[in-house]
Design goal:
Hypothetical Protein Ychn, Chain: A, 5-stranded parallel beta sheet, 6 helices
Length: 111
């Protein structure tokens, strides 16, 4: 049996992000795949940093399921919201992290 692991990359701060959060949360909750990792990369980071409830609710659900999303530190630094973003997610440079997940065979899903 093949092991499937998903790398959910959420960038947009619109309804696509909601779909990404919904899929990732349900995949973890219901064991649809072996593992799910969530990376925030782009405009979604600012929305979460500003406390947008549409997205923060999903981040909180993922955290409750033991899956703390990771957000791109460089974008947060450039945009000036790194400190507020850290209240919600882990903030790190994600380029290498994404490459490592891909090398491990995670299937990228972008929203």
């Amino acid at each position: 049996m093949r092991v499937v692991r998903a790398l959910v990359i959420i960038s947009g701060a619109d309804e696509r992000a909601l779909v990404g959060f919904m899929w990732a949360t349900n995949a973890v909750r219901h064991g649809w795949v072996e593992d799910v990792e969530v990376v925030l990369f782009g405009p979604i980071e600012k929305a979460v940093a500003e406390g947008d409830e549409r997205f923060v609710l999903w981040v909180e659900q993922l955290k409750e399921l033991g899956k703390l999303p990771i957000a791109c530190k460089r974008i947060a630094e450039l945009e000036g919201f790194e400190v507020s973003l850290q209240k919600y997610v882990k903030v790190e440079y994600v380029g290498k992290i994404i490459a490592e997940y891909l090398e491990k065979g995670y299937v990228p899903m972008t929203f």
